[in-house]
């Protein structure tokens, strides 16, 4: 798979909104919330041009029964795809280029908080977001045909930012509750 990161595109938020509406219609009252996550949700940074959606549902067992609704929207069902408790779907356009990833979790799992804390931290800390952007650009040059090399190359940085993000998020909640 070709690894390509591109400058931030202002239409990514619109594409997220459009897709969130389609998924909400398909999955109905099982949905608790739909969030834009991943690098396309962070302003001013380079990203792979794939919209990541995090969907919180009331009942994962009900979602498994709704899998055909996601397939009808053009998604490929990937099961947990390496993360217990997640349902992962991906969609390509007619040219075969990946356009969307959908990560579905029950509403109250820690994975959701980790993803949202990372996104919110990066938006609130543009210097760290820029470091992430620069790292992604460098890794895309270093591993232009090796998605696993690209992912492995950013793993340490992402884990450190997630650690900082969770501490930051807890401090924000403390401030809000005082």
Automatic annotation (TrEMBL):
InterPro entries: GrpB/CoaE, NT_sf
A family per Pfam: GrpB
Top-level taxon of the source organism: Bacteria
UniProt name for this protein: GrpB family protein
